[in-house]
Amino acid sequence: MEIPISQRLSPNTGLDLVRATEAAAIAAARLMGRGEIEEADRAAAAAMAAALANLELDGRLAMGEEVRAMATTPLISGTRVGTGDGPPADLIVDPIDGRRQLAQGRAGAVSFAAVTNRGALWAPHPAAYMEKIIVGPEVAPYLVPECLDAPAGWTLALVARATRRTVRDLVVFVLDRPRHAHLIEEIRSAGARVMLADDGDIYGALLAAMPGTNVDLLMGIGGAPEGVLAACAIKSLGGAMLARLAPQSEAERDAITRAGLDSKRILTCDDIVSSEQIFFVATGITDNILLRGVRLAGDRAETNSLILRCETRTRRLIFAEHLLTG
Length: 326
Known about the structure:
This protein is α+β, with helices and mostly antiparallel strands and 326 residues long. 30% of the residues lie in helices and 26% in strands. It contains 9 helices and 13 strands. The protein has helices at 13-29, 37-52, 99-104, 152-163, 181-190, 201-209, 224-237, 250-258, 269-272, and strands at 58-63, 80-81, 88-97, 110-117, 129-135, 171-175, 193-197, 217-223, 240-245, 279-284, 295-297, 300-309, 314-323. Strands 1, 2, 3, 4, 10, 11, 12 and 13 form an 8-stranded mixed sheet that branches. It has a 5-stranded mixed sheet with strand order 7-6-8-5-9, with helices on both faces. A hairpin with a 2-residue loop joins strand 11 and strand 12. The longest helix has 17 residues, at 13-29. It is globular and about 55 Å long. The N and C termini lie far apart (44 Å). The model has no long low-confidence stretch (mean pLDDT 94).
């Protein structure tokens, strides 16, 4: 889509946006390992909302926290963010991806946010769940819509051929949920290995799309808002994604039907985010494969963040030290 110059996002937008994930990560890290999921949600969301208010954007949240949050949150769909003195933009955020990991003091909790041009994000309200297959740039040209309905072994064979490896070399990221029992059995029967995770849908998508992680693809059903956020990252990395709404209850199925959403339509990254002007940012909360977690010491905090810019395929890793006040 052609973007007028007056509506183009600044090249520094990613550096501005990462302050929001840094703030959320620091707030959440203070509650790491305390078993207080709701309290951590509230603290991270409040810190992120305060940071987003300072962005030089006329922004709004295309999808908010109301679908997935376990506590009252200021980050609901349609919320205006930014100073209003900047280009119109849509944002999608997740202050804590990996809530259970954070509460238990385990690896894999990350704070995420993405921004793109106004109207470029597909926002499937009120859908809560989405089926996904995600691969990196090497496999992206070979991923076809048929993969979403094919047996897992067929897709794994396709990935193996694309990467010139055997199926038994592959690692598949899957959320550890009862609904995935058959999928996990299929993957193992085909000879591939499974990386199970209690939580962390977006984190898993990044592992599948980035080189050097030892994860080759993500498969299974996760959150719909997380899927939209993941699409921003995957497109920025040059990977590929297939997605389809996957309601997990009759109430959700009825809600998406009333909203006019098609639960049979197979979507790609371009269907979910139509612009190339995408900035995707992440800050580690607890240590993980991609990012170091927050380090707290007195009046100082250290953070490790990732910034992706789709237009230039730039990937930046940032280590920052923050002076804490209040």
